[in-house]
Write a structure and sequence with these properties.
CATH architecture of chain B: Orthogonal Bundle
Largest sheet of chain B: 2 strands, antiparallel
Strand order of the largest sheet of chain B: 2-3
Strand content of chain A: under 5%
Oligomer: heterodimer
Order of helices and strands of chain B: EHEEHHHHHHHHHHH
Largest sheet of chain A: 2 strands, antiparallel
Number of helices of chain A: 14
Largest interface: A-B, 99 and 94 residues
Distance between the termini of chain B: 23 Å
Helix content of chain A: over 70%
Radius of gyration of chain B: 24 Å
Number of helices of chain B: 12
Number of domains of chain B: 1
Distance between the termini of chain A: 29 Å
Number of strands of chain B: 3
Strand order of the largest sheet of chain A: 2-3
Order of helices and strands of chain A: HHHHEHHHHHHHHEEHH
Shape of chain A: globular
Number of strands of chain A: 3
Chain lengths: 266, 296
């Protein structure tokens, strides 16, 4: 049984990694080799594709732009979602159920046609082509999910802990930061993971709300498709580089996520 | 947990409310506004009432892409949910292998969506891609750019590759929450693996599966970037899904009125399906708890 399981999971992981491997493989090949010969690994190993990206500020600034607004988004999301999730997990108040469902409905709006209104809205308040605009727009997707996840983790913390802390003379902010947050640290890890995930991978809104200053890497990638065909090597190299931040994030929060996925009801 | 009634809790929720309202209500109202007007330019807009709605409901293009959309969501869900549960059951439970598996499974989730499209575009091409090359080498004529069936298979396969991990990770977390005592009791009863799955694991997975299915339904129904990069909606219109049809209308042809009207209809469809889903599940919960109460 156990061997069968190991075989199954290994086969699935191979299926997951093969396309990624192919991208990495291509990123180390020259365009002539990509189009000319078919090989499972680079015959003439080259770093030229990466060199194109690392020496051109319009390329590498795209990465900084993306990372910048993703970090901002995670921070804003946590900042507003923590108190809200606490309210949902501890109190009943007028309209709480409706508010919760309304928050979730925002994930259901088709982004494609909301692009134009978003563009107009952020232009009219002077935020067009800034990182904060993208971060705020992404909050639409990340905040509802963050509230949902954190609420689950907070509900798992017994209410007696709050009451004991108040009896001991803790004020609400001090209790919240000193006692409550450490108790739900794995929940915070999972929330950061999810906010990162949904903000890093989103392109439509990010592309619409930026032009030069805050243009995300995913939008810059489209320039490899030119009149003379596709620059496959550079496209592959840029793709590989967009995978790395994701792997770093999951690596840093892996213990939280492993523990968090196990404890919380997510 | 019994919660206390306290309306002051609104102060804690207020930041979320304001933030989301800014990005949600204003654009939504703008779209509603578009959907009832015929707009020529900024100063020339005429109120046309429900005319756009009447027009779009008879538009065969939109009916076709709506049908394709439902077929797509149904097929990815019917593959991803069972596969995700199976993967979660096969995952190692502790040790370094468990963390490694967790990280590797999460990789597709953290790749930008257009890069996912690019990866599959490259991977599935017959001339330079491993998949296309191997499949053609096996004697099967495969070309996702010309053959609608191949395009469909590739788009569904890409979605399975991309999102099964989400279901798997959620189920994995659900499985970890089952106390060992349950399994010990099952062992004493000599329960078969199938019985363990049906009576212990599956009921515990229900909560996370609701979240997983709901997220997958909503996201697959709004899919845009990945098929756009992979097939561009083609060949013909065979993989043109709803979002793409809408974007073409709104940006390509400047038919903002009908596009807005349809996006409102679209939004209502997603809302309705999710609501039906929610209520039927909670109804199921209620019936079940009533059933156990009667028994005891």
């Amino acid at each position: 049984m156990s061997r069968k399981k190991t075989f199954g999971i290994s086969a699935y992981i191979v299926f997951l990694l093969l396309p990624v491997y192919w991208l990495i493989n291509m990123s180390f090949k020259s365009n002539e080799e990509i189009l000319g010969t078919f090989s499972l690994w680079p015959q003439q190993f080259t770093l030229a594709n990466y060199q194109v990206i690392f020496t051109d500020p319009t390329w590498y600034n795209g990465y900084f732009n993306s990372i910048y607004y993703v970090v901002m988004n995670s921070f804003i999301t946590l900042l507003v979602a923590l108190p809200a999730a606490y309210a949902f997990s501890r109190y009943k108040f007028v309209g709480d159920k409706h508010l919760f469902f309304w928050l979730l409905t925002n994930r259901m709006a088709p982004p494609a046609v909301f692009l134009l209104p978003f563009f107009q809205l952020y232009s009219s308040v002077g935020l067009f082509d800034t990182h904060i605009a993208v971060a705020l727009a992404h909050c639409l997707f990340s905040v509802p999910l963050a509230v949902w996840i954190l609420e689950g983790f907070m509900s798992a913390v017994p209410k007696e802990i709050d009451e004991t802390a108040y009896i001991d003379g803790y004020s609400f902010p001090r209790f919240f930061i000193r006692i409550f947050l450490p108790l739900i640290s794995s929940g915070i890890g999972v929330t950061i993971f999810f906010s990162f995930m949904f903000s890093w991978v989103e392109l439509l809104l990010a592309r619409t709300l930026t032009s030069v200053e805050a243009k995300p890497i995913a939008a810059i990638m489209t320039r490899t498709i030119g009149a003379s065909g596709v620059d496959w090597g550079v496209l592959a190299a840029a793709g590989v580089l967009t995978i790395i931040p994701g792997i770093l994030v999951i690596y840093f929060v892996r213990n939280h996520v492993a523990k968090g996925f196990a404890l919380g009801r997510v | 947990m019994n919660k206390t009634q306290n309306n002051k809790a609104w102060f804690l929720v207020l930041p979320v409310f304001l933030l989301v309202a800014f990005s949600a209500i204003i654009p939504l109202m703008t779209v509603v506004n578009y959907s009832v007007q015929d707009i020529f330019d900024q100063n020339n807009a005429y109120f046309v009432g429900v005319e756009w709605y009447r027009e779009i409901l008879q538009d065969p293009r939109l009916q076709d892409s709506l049908l394709r959309q439902f077929m797509y969501s149904a097929s990815v869900l019917s593959i991803e949910v069972p596969l995700g549960i199976a993967v979660a059951l096969m995952m190692p439970t502790r040790g370094a292998m468990a963390s490694l598996t967790l990280i590797l499974l999460a990789v597709p989730l953290l790749i930008p969506w257009n890069v996912v499209g690019t990866i599959w575009q490259i991977f599935a091409r017959a001339d330079i891609g491993l998949l296309g090359y191997v499949v053609n080498g096996l004697g099967i004529d495969y070309n996702y750019a010309n053959n609608p069936v191949d395009a469909w298979v590739t788009v569904v396969l890409m979605d399975v590759w991309h999102w099964t991990s989400l279901i798997a990770l959620l189920c994995y977390s659900g499985l970890r929450a089952i106390p060992d005592a349950y399994y010990q009791a099952a062992q004493i009863d000599r329960a078969s693996n199938w019985a363990i799955f049906k009576y212990i694991q599956l009921p515990k997975l229900k909560g996370v599966l609701i979240i997983g299915v709901l997220l997958r339904f909503m996201d697959s129904f709004m899919i845009y970037t990945e098929p756009f990069v992979l097939t561009g909606g083609g060949p013909g219109n065979s993989t043109t899904f709803l979002s793409q049809t809408l974007t073409k209308m709104a940006i390509g042809q400047f038919d903002i009125g009908p596009a807005a009207a349809f996006s409102i209809v679209y939004f209502l469809i997603v809302l309705l399906v999710s609501w039906l889903f929610f209520t039927s599940i909670s109804q199921l919960d209620k019936d079940k708890s009533k059933g156990t109460n009667n028994e005891s």
